[in-house]
Here is the input.
Amino acid sequence: FFFFKQKTAYEISACLVGSEMCIRDRYISRKHHEDKVLAFEKGDLLFVFNFHATKSFEHYRIGTDSPHEHQIVLDTDDEYFGGHNRVKPAHSNKFPIIKDRWDNRNNYIQIYIPARSALVFRPLKD
Here is the structure.
């Protein structure tokens, strides 16, 4: 039953069309084995994965070099992808930049990342 609710990689990638996925630049800013969180920047996008089976995180710091506020562009916990909509209220939120170094990046944002989910952010440039 669970398998059939999940979207394919093709359906997820269709949500990212035009999002600079072809740029080869990337920087892995967080690989936390205990938390099972992976975060990296590719082009202008910030990808955050929580592979933990049971643990969600509030106010989780994710480093970024972008000086701009961020907004969610993809949320695998959205019901469209078979998720539970735990992040949906934040889809229209702007995530402010905290100008303090974190994970060898110049700035960071603080996010809620549910267990077994991924979020993709884009900076909101003027």
The radius of gyration is 14 Å. The helical segments are 2-5, 9-14. DSSP finds two helices and seven strands in the chain. Strands lie at 26-32, 37-42, 45-50, 57-64, 70-75, 107-113, 117-123.
